[in-house]
Amino acid sequence: MAKQKKITIKEDAILEAKRKAELMSKMTDTTHKVGEVKHDLLLSIKDLKLHFETVRGAVQAVDGVNFDLVTNKAVVVVGESGCGKSSLAKAILRLLPRNVSHYSGEVWLRDVDTMQLSDEDYREDIRWVKISMVPQAAMNSLNPVLRVGDQVAEPMLVHYGMPKEEAMEQAAVMFRNVGVPVDFLTRYPFELSGGMRQRVAIAMALVTGPDLVILDEPTSALDVLTQANIFNLLKRIKANLETSFILITHDISTSSELADIVAVMYAGKIIEVSESHRFFSKPRHPYARALMASVPRLREREEPRFIEGKPPSLINPPTGCRFKDRCPKRFEKCEEEPPVTVFGDDWVACWLYEGQGE
Amino acid sequence: MTEQYEEKDLKISEGELDEGFVLDIRGLKVYFELRKRGFQHAGFVRAVDGVDLKLHRGETIAIVGESGCGKTSLMKTILRLNTPTGGEIEFDGEIINDLKADALKNVRRKIGYVQQDPYGALAPFMNVRTILEEPLIVNGIKDKQERFERIVKVLEEVRMTPVEDFLEKFPHQLSGGQQQRIVIARAMILDPILLVADEPVSMLDASVRVEILKLLRALQEEHHLAVIYITHDLATVRYFSEYIYVMYAGQVIEKAQESDLINKTAHPYTHALLAATSDPDPKNVDEFQDVPPGEPPSLVTPPLGCRFHPRCPHMIPDLCEVKRPPEFDLGDKHQVACWLFRDMPVYREFTIED
Question: Is 0.95 exceeded by the ipTM?
Answer without folding.
Answer: no
